[in-house]
Write the structure tokens for this entry.
Amino acid sequence: MSDPLGFISGQSARPAGLPGVRPAAGGVPTDPGVPGFKDALLENLKQVNQLQQDANQAIEDVTSGKRDDVEGVILATQKADSAFRMLQAVRNRVMEAYDEIKQVRV
């Protein structure tokens, strides 16, 4: 039986020229410049939070009369909504993957 992914022999099937991932360490980044999944997720959480705050501020500005461009407010709220929906989709996919991993028998 062949081992194309390197699970049996401990060898990785990825090309040797790709930086940032150690084959035997389960995909842990070796280059400090390459962000890990946790770092990317936290950065996206911060961006979604900032978009939500910008949308709330735009709504408050329109209601208080500091701003009169309703189109900009609608655009800000739609951006925040899209970002939040994308974040929910990522969370749902991570939870599905976690549930699948829990069902793997060792």
Notes: The radius of gyration is 21 Å. The CA atoms of residues 37 and 53 lie 24 Å apart. The first helix runs from residue 37 to 64. Helices lie at 37-64, 70-102.
